[in-house]
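Lab meeting, action items carried over

1. Structure of the two-component assembly. Owner: GW. Status: complete.
Input record:
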Amino acid sequence: MSVKDRDPLTGHQTTGHEWNGITELNTRVPRAVWFFVIVTHVWALVVWVLMPAWPLVTTYTKGLLGTDQREEVQESIAVANAIRDDWSSLIADLPVDEIRADPALMAPVNDTAHALFGDNCAGCHGSDAAGGPGFPSLVDDAWLWGGDADTIMETLRVGINATHPETRYAQMLAFGEQGILPRDDIRTVVDYVQSLSGTGAPADRIAAGAEIYATNCASCHGEDGTGMAEIGAPNLRDDFWIYGGGDEAMFETIWGGRQGWMPAWEDRLTVADRKILTIYLQDRAKETAQ
Amino acid sequence: MMSNLTRAERANAMVIAGTGAFIGLVMAAAGRGDPMGAHGWIVLAFCGALFFVVGSAYEDPEPTQDRTASYYDDPTKVGILIALFWAVVGMGMGVWVASQLAWPDLRFDAAWSSFGRIRPVHTSGVIFGFGGNALIATSFHIMQRTCRARMPDQVTPWFVLLGFNLFCIVASSGYLMGVTQSKEYAEPEWYADLWLVVVWVVYFVLYIRTLARRNEPHIYVANWYYLAFILVVAVLHIVNNLAVPASLTGAKSYSAFAGVQDAMTQWWYGHNAVAFFLTSGFLGMLYYFLPKRAERPIYSYRLSILSFWGITFFYIWAGSHHLHYTALPHWVQTLGMTFSVMLLVPSWASAGNALMTLNGAWHKVRDDATLRFMMVAAVFYGLSTFEGSFMAIRPVNGLSHYTDWTVGHVHAGAMGWVALISFGSIYALAPVLWRRETIYSWKAVEWHFWLALAGTVIYVFAMWNSGITQGLMWRTYTESGTLAYSFTDTLVAMHPYYVARTFGGLLFLIGACIGAWNVVMTIRRMPSETPERDYPTSSESREPALPAAE
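Predicted assembly:
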């Protein structure tokens, strides 16, 4: 029934089967294929002997090399930490001024700060640290809680309105929503606050706004509007606005209140990491100011 | 089409569709306020429409011809058209998700259009929608031709094809509503999974029944591969989707596995979905259409045996290479790595067998874009299996894992191998199926070929560059022993490649659109022709029992 033809091109015999016009040659498996079958299998056998490989009932074959991925990871972490220990404990212990004075310590600070900031801070404050709507710029000289090294370190440690027990706490009341100020008064005080940073408005509105300001706002933002860093109340006399300085944005801020949030980094970043970020931020602010 | 069904078959079809519609109604009622309810309405609409389509033709005259004298090709025709539809949809979604990675604002701020929801629409759309329908349709064609036997009945193939597409629709609409098990390539929830089990078991039984009716003494290689595809996918699907529904009236379920066992089960599934869905089935396609088109005998039957059993045996072990350097025990990783490397030889034996089959037909490869699709597919199959084994080696994986290199590797396989062999097969099959003299436009096939090839190469090169750049940036340390780059730095570095990838994908999509148009025009515009001897016969006489009735 099956006729084994010979393929004229290759000279090989067919298997004699045919399916809807398709036939097969009975060519033997090329030697190269067997060669590579043997090579890969021998390689696999060698790996099985050397590495953890086959499960037994309650354990597994450990391999002659005695490798264990958990130990490997711990060892490489230890090695990496040893390299960083040269400088990280010094940075953690020394005050910022002394670190700045020591080029050997500033080298790791400059090496590390960029990625540290990029992976932990840039998500909110932007990769250029210039902030965005709702997130303060870190490269101006307006600091909500103060820009000296110790204060920045503390802000990083406890966060703002965060879950840390010692967190910095700040809230601006929702003057409109809670019925403290009617709409018109809010519009008036917006004109006044804008005039503090030099925007023109009719004198009578400014006067009316000043009165509203003195009763409702001065307790936090200060009589003169320069804010209070101890309680995180922003300066209203500069031209930095977290939530925007336009009429609508300011109305919304006063109407609905604000309570920004920054996580506490005490458990996530080491003291050295936080000090590196502090130095980085101060330097960036200085660069931008120049 | 309905005129080929007997009245009893029409009645059966109406009972099945009616039952489906009733189940849809129950789901819609029970799942009110849950995405399951929306799925109920979809099932009701789908099955209800089928019920009325069949019902309206119920009284039509019955078929008169001797059906054993011809093959049953209606489901194949519909399957090919549905596959082309899903190709355009799935690849279109692919271009969109790729664009979102380059320009995130293209989400347009809607929940349904977020990356996490439309990405699975892309992956399921191309793998299950395009690939799955192409596999089912070609398997119907090939099993009948290589068995020289008609399928045993006419309702079952429709049940398989349409039931599978109902699964695809429920799956992709679910993703847009946020329904997901969060298992890659196994996202659909429990009721969709149960339905697919039913469809798949019927598919398996249909295949076995057709093989049992064969008029050939031997079972052709293509059938081995299709059977491996159907059988193993059933096992994978059932085990990986074992889950307990949180409630019978809602979509949410909880996996039977937890922690690292869950991860291992998922990647045992995931890798073998690549093996048995995206490789085995398409090798079946290759084994039929390539020798048929080249008019050359398969280079080596013995090599076919070696590669079939090699692929089938080794692939099953390889899944753990997706979990190198994780909580998975080291020994499981070693096994995954070694079996992945041993797998390379049988894989290359398959690709080599296909390319050696073309000896004596290379002039056809040069002239005929359809055959060239298949040839290049075999080359990409070889390339991506080499790359896969290489990436499965632990230290290499340490660099490649979690990067775009993986994405590039998958797309070398999915575009270069799976899609090209499917398009080649569809171009070879369409004139045969619809009994047309030839395809509508050979020029358009050429255009499709070069667009697809250019798109694949651009895509894969972009992802190699992006992935290796990304992997190296992640492991670059400063002299102080700290990381040199932030994650955002890597995104900035990858952006140009993301744009290039989108462009490559767009070329591929344009090719697919041209292909769909070309097939439709072939059906509509080309004069018909009766092909020679395309009907069941016994192998003894090699003559048709009766002339084809059409």
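2. GW to write a short summary for the group page. Key points so far: The radius of gyration of chain A is 35 Å. Chain A has a mean pLDDT of 92.
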